[in-house]
Write a structure and sequence with these properties.
The chain has 140 residues and is mainly β. It is built from 2 helices and 8 strands. It has helices spanning 7-13, 99-102, and strands spanning 29-41, 46-52, 57-65, 73-77, 86-90, 95-98, 116-123, 127-138. The strands form 2 sheets. It has a 4-stranded antiparallel beta sheet. A 4-stranded antiparallel beta sheet has the order 2-7-4-5, with no helix packed on it. β4 (73-77) and β5 form a beta hairpin. It starts with 6 loop residues before the first helix and ends with a strand.
């Protein structure tokens, strides 16, 4: 059996100590929340739900939605990678999807080097109903 350390623990246990970024160790968790009431929103539409500052590190994204219509899907990401945070998820029935449940590992701990908008993209059909999104991130 092995006993190993993560990158940040290895760095703070080293001599001399290499400090971890405040957004990764003991930083303040923040949330950006928004909602949108879709009314016959066309497939392929983007909904801007958060504007993260430069240096923001994302730790979770949660989307809660009504039954949006037959075949409707939701994806969350940014202008560089539309599904960085949540891959295409069925939204025909009311529900919730989170980044960690979705398994979008590329989004967990992703740090933005510049101010970035977080986008939800609709797909698969015309969406009608409420969409709420919370983006949990650290910056400091």
């Amino acid at each position: 059996m092995a006993s190993v350390k993560g990158v940040n623990i290895t760095n703070i246990d080293s001599t001399p100590v290499e400090k971890a970024s405040a957004s990764q160790m003991h930083g303040r968790l923040r949330v950006a929340f928004d909602s949108y009431e879709a009314s016959s929103l066309a497939s392929g539409s983007d909904i801007t739900v958060a504007r993260l500052p430069a240096g923001a590190t994302v730790y979770e994204v949660s989307i809660v939605h009504d039954a949006l219509g037959s075949g409707v899907t939701l994806t969350a990401g940014d202008s560089d990678d539309a599904d960085r945070l949540i891959t295409s998820t069925a939204a025909a029935s009311a529900g919730e999807v989170t980044m960690t449940d979705d398994g979008a590992i590329g989004g967990v701990g992703h740090e933005y080097s510049a101010q970035t908008d977080i986008l939800i993209t609709t797909g698969g059909g015309t969406a009608t109903g409420t969409i709420k999104c919370a983006v949990y991130y650290a910056v400091d």
